[in-house]
Amino acid sequence: MIEIQNLNKSFGDKDVLRNINATFYPGQVNVVIGASGSGKSVLMKCMVGLVLPDTGKILYKGDDFIDIDYKKKKEIRKQIGMLFQGAALFDSLSVEENVEFPLKMFSDMSREERLERVNFCLQRVKLENANKLFPSEISGGMKKRVGIARSIALNPKYLFCDEPNSGLDPVTARVIDLLLKEITEEYNITTIMNSHDMKTLFDIGDNVTFIYKGDLEFEGTFEDFRNSGSPLIEEFLAASYFQR
Amino acid sequence: MLLFYNFGRYLLFLASMFSKPEKIGIYISRTFNEMVSIGINSLPIVAVIALFSGGVSTIQTSYQLIASWISKTIIGSIVSDTVILEFAPTITCLVLAGKVGSSIASEIGTMKVSEQIDALEVMGINSTGYLALPKIIAGVIMIPMLIIIAMFLGIWGGMMAGVATGILPAESFMEGARSSFKTFNVVFALIKATSFGFIITSISSFQGYYTEGGALEVGRSSTNAVVYSSVMILCADYLIAQLFL
Prior knowledge:
The complex is a heterodimer of chains A (about 240) and B (about 240). Chain A starts with a strand and ends with a helix. In chain A, the strands form 2 sheets. A 6-stranded mixed beta sheet of chain A has the order 6-7-8-3-9-10, with helices on both faces. Chain A has a 4-stranded antiparallel beta sheet with strand order 2-1-4-5, covered by helices on one side. Chain A contains 9 helices and 10 strands. The relative contact order of chain A is 0.18. Chain A is an alpha/beta fold. With about 240 residues, chain B is an all-alpha fold. Chain B starts with a helix and ends with a helix. The interface between A and B is medium-sized, with 25 and 16 residues.
């Protein structure tokens, strides 16, 4: 479980996040939703330590990620998997080497054990026979799958996904969404997913955190979100019903 | 103020590289790969520069020494000393700042803008140590080796130009080169080469690492890496000469 307490972040004069309080649960897909520029990505970057918040706490099982020492932070980071918006695969490494990379860096597995784990992860994301291809040789959807395979290679407890289906066709986007849902439930991972796509929320969202212009507008279950009656949420929902 | 800000950031960047590596073997392997990329792959351009700078040096020295009472062997002395002291380390490193520096800055810059560096950080890997340190170590080791090769080829090029144009025979050239040879000159050139190797790789890594934006900014970082490395090489060249000569 991850808890965010009174989180604030500004860049210069611009307040990007104001007093955010939220809880993200294991075994569930926790969707952080909001319009483009609402502060979702900054919140996620604060949670994984890429951006330092101005004030507030980020608690991983009670440990404040901001205040703990470097060694402990490194330990928590090993339990984090992250799928970036553009997949962020290493261009100079093949698909197999990309997935193997965290295993090589942080595990004591032999080469054979590593390859076995790589093949398992690639099969899990339904991506066989692509081991030797390079990121430049595969499609956007395949890159996302490799990104997922890499992020689950070390059996993470926390999985962060920054707009995992952006730029994908609807069919591939749904496949990626369902895959993330499956993995979350199968391994009891705390999955935090940024999205401005309501379809994702309808398909796989268990918990919703709705951010509007840096403020937390709603936090709760998907059902409560649908019935909240907030005009801002209604606007989001209406747009998505129209899309559907 | 911006100069001090950037210099401070550069020092912090250098300091951030030194943390306990996750797997030392991976860092050693990366260093060897960088040694091939920086050293072996730069060999052809270094050879061309050295041969031609030595050759041109012989022809121009001969052109300036018009007095008949000056022994022709002096050309060998002047050319070999010039090649060892200045042409091999400085001219070669200025060209390497273009070749190696732009390559390092664009590689790291592209990784930065495509979130690959963020991916390393999220995994708990010290990205500066993983990306920049092997390049700096490789540069500090391989660039002096390239300079040693450039010294030999520069002197040989000078001798061959002398023979080919009939300015002086090979024996006279070598006699002059031997008579003025000082071991300290080679040591001095290697001190310069090591410093320049550090300047090229560290400044280029720094420029790449702090790239913000997209493709346009990657190009800008690459240009900055070459410009700043070249200026710093010239400044360091002057300082080292002032200190040691």
